Amino acid sequence: MKKYFFTMAALVATLMMNAQSVTVTAPKVEVSKPRVEVAKPKVELVKPTTPVVKPVVVTEKPKTVVVKRKVKVNNASERGRERSAKGKNRKNPGKHKGWDKKKKD
How does pLDDT run along the chain (105 residues), one tens digit per residue? Predict the structure, then answer.
């Protein structure tokens, strides 16, 4: 019994300390919010006899944009231009159509 005396005493002491309920109340922190006041604009009364002139806002009209297309440059040789100008009603004999489809003059 002497052997376990201090062990039992320590066990009883820890049980007694756990049995006591300790309540700690911390002070509540209050966050103060800044008070925002919206300032109302002051309205001046205008006499009814004086006419109120409102400014006229003039806006510019958007300009129409003209898109210019690039014209392809004709790089045909002089002989090709001459042969293509031979006849407008018939197909252009200056272009290569194949040996059997080419019209003869």
Answer: 667 887 888 888 887 776 666 566 777 777 777 777 777 777 677 666 666 677 777 777 778 878 787 766 666 566 666 666 665 555 555 666 666 655 555
Q: Do residues 94 and 83 touch, judged by C-beta distance below 8 A?
A: yes
Predicted structure pTM score? 0.19
Q: How far apart are CA 5 and CA 36, in angstroms?
A: 69
Residue 82 has which token pair?
Answer: 């001459």
Angstrom distances, CA of residue 62 to CA of 22, 50, 57, 92: 80, 37, 16, 47
Alpha-carbon span 60 to 16, nearest angstrom: 90
Contact indicator for 20, 14 with CB cutoff of 8 Å:
no
The answer to whether 79 touches 92, Cβ cutoff 8 Å, is no
**Amino acid in the structure at residue 87:** G
Calpha distance 97→95 (Å, rounded):
6
